[in-house]
Amino acid sequence: NAGVMQNPRHLVRRRGQEARLRCSPMKGHSHVYWYRQLPEEGLKFMVYLQKENIIDESGMPKERFSAEFPKEGPSILRIQQVVRGDSAAYFCASSPKFGFPQHFGDGTRLSIL
Amino acid sequence: QKEVEQDPGPLSVPEGAIVSLNCTYSNSAFQYFMWYRQYSRKGPELLMYTYSSGNKEDGRFTAQVDKSSKYISLFIRDSQPSDSATYLCAREYGNKLVFGAGTILRVKS
Q1: What is the pLDDT of residues A14-26, one digit of tens each?
Q2: Testing the interface with B: which of A102, A103, A108, A111 to mutate, by most B Cβ within 10 A?
Q3: Interface test with A, best of B95, B98, B99, B104 (most A CBs within 10 A)
Q4: With a cut of 70, which residues of chain A have pLDDT below it?
Q5: Using an 8 Å Cβ cutoff, are A13 and A87 in contact?
Q6: Contact B44 A59 (CB under 8 A)
């Protein structure tokens, strides 16, 4: 299956710990997007990256959240000092060109104890 | 006002029925509209995308955009229990997608 791969599928952290979420885009896709889905809410855009560049991070919380897409390896969404409100499903999408169509992975479900 | 409005449902129909799912949007900028299907505990799956106004058909699915009324629709013919899922409408907004809250569809056999 050459789809968007996300891991881990489930991640449990205690308040104050760090969470690292990984995303490997579809083969041939060089554009990566991260979205967050809070309980009872729709998907919200967080950040758009190309290899080694953050293009648009207008949806990222100002503190504790960062993202990268290195030249080699998967894209990483990093959340430092997690709080209960960070509990959500985090989805990664990729596209072969700017914007769309975007194909999604099955997400990482983050639970904060 | 939300950028994309969608009735969360749930919408319950008998097997074989024609299903109509709808969204409204508020900003006329940008041209592409998408429909995604999301099963429980899975990621959104792209069903269809349309450009500007008009209809697009793919098997049992038809997507329709009416730019004059800012209304987008997805029709599902001969609905099946396997169509039971959450349906998300989205529009492109430059490099990102803006989603509606999703409509839960239940098709009963």
Answers
A1: 999 999 999 999 9
A2: A102
A3: B95
A4: 1, 99
A5: no
A6: no
